[in-house]
User: Fold these one by one.
Assistant:
Number 1:
Amino acid sequence: MSPNSALSGAMGKRPLEVAAGDVTIGDPSIKGAQITQMGHGHFQTALLPRKALLRACPNAEDLIAGSIPGANPITSMFLRYYDLAHAYADKLAAAELDAVSQHLFDLAVLMIGARGDVAEEARTRGLAAARLETLKSDILAQLDSPALSLAGLSAAHRVSPRTIQLLFEQAGITYSGFVLEQRLLRAERLLQNPAMRTRKIIEIAHLAGFHDVSYFHRAFRRRFGQTPDDVRKLSGESK
């Protein structure tokens, strides 16, 4: 995977020419296998177990050195989940790393072209998990924005609003419940931050994504059993 530079090379007798942002399958066991970046950038590799891959996608070896479009929705999902996994890998326990690895494998076989029961299992397990994590990542990135909405996420991820709601419900929370909880947690962190001590409560509410301050006060007290002012004062006393 080379997000910002074309790839050139060969896998044995097969020439390899891949545009920036696209993906290819390589096989390091092929004599003379080599891949070169055509410009500056960073190169990424996901190692997949051969036997498991061929069980899921018997035609995988036919696709070696070919180009898989990065704009394909499944490929795009694979690349985003890969980046998330890489960013958080050192913070995950062994069992969590195993789960993330399985999800990446599931996305890979869907990207390569798994069919039938294998594809259905991969969609149920890996695709659902990856889609939920990328949705959460997008929500957190725009948590303070009034434009954050179920409809906007639906359009950006090219899935229906109901699909998003079901993904959250299957994880034991509603979409709106997740957004509210994350905004409240952000508000609590901001109130406890000494650098934010001079900011007004209404500013803190807006930074956390609340644009109805009365609702913010009610929701905050219901969640933490204290008012925003109480949390700020107690935080200052504990320093």
Number 2:
Amino acid sequence: MSSIDHDRMVAGQLYRADAADLARQRRQARQLTVQFNALATTEETKRAALLQQLFGAIGTGGYIEPNLRVDYGVNIHIGQNFYANYDPIMLDVAPITIGDNVLFGPRVSLLTPGHPLDADIRNSGVEYAQPITIGNNVWLGGEVTVLPGVTIGENTIVGAGSVVTKDLPDSVIAVGNPAHVLRPLTGADYDRWVQAKAEYDAAIK
């Protein structure tokens, strides 16, 4: 049975993370991530089964390098063909939704929790969270950090080390702290990589 704090947490309102049912859910998630991180990469069936148990949903073709860290796991929903390089952190106090064909570089962090700006209120132990949404075909470079409430549009690329504090549109390259749009992806980008892929295909025949 959920507590008032659980209900307030999922509603994006102030809540206390030390509520008994929330603490129990976090312990369960940590047990699963410890098991997952300890498995050899060759144990693909066991790894996939643990991810199905841990996440709210994950599509086929998903692969995550160790060490994975989550808060609850059940608030994370991932599409098809997801790949996360080493040390992904997904703090899913609020929902995290990830589309199809998404790539994470090493040490990407998705951080949904927030804390009150007033020190006295913050020190009282209450916090809140806002959801993160990542569209299809997004590539987040190494050590990208995504902050609470952010939506990243489809086909967008975020450069390594960027901190994403606000929504990003579809089909752009964004960099920096805070992340800003560097430029749109264009037909010239498409033509360049179509040619490179054609050259590769010819080379391996």
Number 3:
Amino acid sequence: MDRLTLIAELIGPQFQEKVSTTLKNHLTAAHLKGSPEELSDCVDSDKREYLPAGITEVLSSFDFIERGYNVCILGESDSGKSYLAKAIGIKACNRYNVGYFHSEELLESMVALKEQDYDKYARKMKKYLKWELIILDDFLLHTITDEREIKILFELLEKRNEQRKSTIVCSQRDPDNWKAMILNDEVSANSIMKRATKHYTIKINTR
């Protein structure tokens, strides 16, 4: 056995263990640990169609993360939006820091944290702005009437866009109806809509 082969056999198991540990840590931080979603399942079938054609293969390269592009996934309830978003997030955890959140829960928790401990809120927001990919599920499922939530959503999307960090939003509503879901702040509503739909928009049709 030559020296390089011997070294490879000695450090190989340690390297694989480190990679496995890193992935588990990323999945835990992303709130995706234990999720079974597989990106290979997200293809056209007799149950659903992904438009535009071939978009799931395009996203699986993660070039959109490297470029800091945003993705908007649209479809009816139970059409497979969350499955696709989670599948992308799980695979991305091999290489990137990822966060998966239900939009309302994230905004409510951030508002409460900002009221209770601004320094802790600022540190958490800074962390969210650094992650390469954030997924916001159930985006604008209900009308946002709290001005504090609107400001946090605006800050999150606007600053992530400035720093070329990717965000995926999943919504049951067509983007043309989003402005009506963000009350009393047309400027923020326009910016949120523009940022969330800036690059890729996927439509999932059930059959």
